[in-house]
């Protein structure tokens, strides 16, 4: 242990203690709450935690490294699964060097650091070199990435089966929360005890997936939005991947990585494979863990640069029925409501009269748009709005000029074409010619039409996605090709914003979100469903990146009918927009919608910069809350929704995130009211002990609001209110 390197990665409230002893791969001894420890204490802790490896054979279980090795006596999933010609399947890595943000660290050194530590290792027998980065960001977000190089001169390639990192979690975290879903019902929570074995959530869909868990949380019993210790894992990749919790006789860990198909990554001499980033976020309560992901995205996304423009997307207004006069009229109406970005959705390009044809032919359909898209784009800009356009660049319809000209540009694992899915196939972007063609087409469109926003869709799972010709799996390369294309378009168009959509929320992960600025969380705008989709997707994605549209009273997906204030209140805490044929609005509806747009514009900076919080979502019989608290704690907005079925007539809502030391004035936009905008309803004003002076609101202590909460009436099902809190004095 004397020669051990000890790295204490720290952020303000998180510690990660890593020990690298002898020449073995590093072990994380602690990932969790920040420890105020001196060097000597750290050394003593590391020594006390020491456990023998295989050489000292003992009954004590091997302590798993960040990439646990079977050769060292680990019997769970190996960190690195490889083989070369049926051998080299059980590597044992030796550390060659360790660097802290580039500066070499000597054996025996102990360092406390914020940033990255990189371990350089090799295995002389299997002739593999490995680089493992562990990075603790100043926000407390942990991320790791591995690079594997075939250092052998053998002509036999090194096949990489999987690289799955292991982030240890204390076994007292014995409850898991992950998510499932389907089209229009993304992010349905499932909570369950953690038992011995592997709980694995795979995506083999070639996209993140509508059913993708997005993240896996393990927490102490009963953990919630603002209480209980929670460890969250996430794999930042949009192709096949796996999230797992692995509980063995000695440990619990989050395991995550890309899911590689058979033979998908075969490294020839000198070639390397780099894994996606795998993230870990610790916090007291889910919200604290979630804020670290938000910080990461906010530092990268173009959406944090300027106020989020209120958007109108025409999809649910016109579907494929494109007619220049109708859509121009919609634009005019939209601008009168205060809309700032107008997005033309699917149906604008050659041959696209329904979803059976046209994908790949990215020029305006002459029947619908005889003069091209420029006249509409100019009309939109003339009204003071930005112009955005829907595209689905990774896809192709067999009924398209592109498929007729290049039938060999379609991914397939077998001689025949894969099964159709929404009548479409996947364009082979790993083919340099197809890639160059699509990149040039998009680039030209953006310049010619003056597009400042792309809604980038991806409407099918990848079935049998092989390279045409060889049939070898192509999901990995296809995914990285899409990333390259997005990076290149953003490089060429520094102000272009991109929305990630995949049949709704089928592509939500940090891999795609590092290169896009907003997501379309779901095709369901039904506020009952949408509230929960926004809340749970919001654990990973900050509110200003969550597309949040008000649609028609009768939901196109569920057929349920909801009032306008309810729909608006649920959509309020996000990147607000409209997806509805607003030409048919009655005068009072138009007035109400314009009011919501203007109020949203007034408060959007708070939504965009504040800290999201939630509560009550796991109890379907009580009210649920989504809120956003200003970074300085001086103001907050909460959406409260009553449940569809409630046995109780009143229920308390606690306002998490508030500053206990401040007093707050509470005002409420009552569900069915249009004005005055922020009222104090009777049920608050008349509550005993309340100092209700005027309509400026009732003053409460932050501690009372946070810890005890206010009672809300729950006898009206499916109502929503926006509660506004402002620090008094
Ligand atoms: C997907 C999207 C929708 C819409 C349609 C267009 O389903 O999720 O918002 O863009 O495609 O075909």
UniProtKB/TrEMBL annotation:
CDD domains: GH36. Belongs to the glycosyl hydrolase. This is Alpha-galactosidase. Its EC number is 3.2.1.22. Substrate binds at residues 183, 345-346, 422, 455-459, 501, 523. GO terms for biological process: carbohydrate catabolic process. Residues 25-267 form the Glycosyl hydrolase family 36 N-terminal domain. The keyword Hydrolase applies. The active site is at 457 (nucleophile), 523 (proton donor). One of its GO terms (molecular function) is alpha-galactosidase activity.
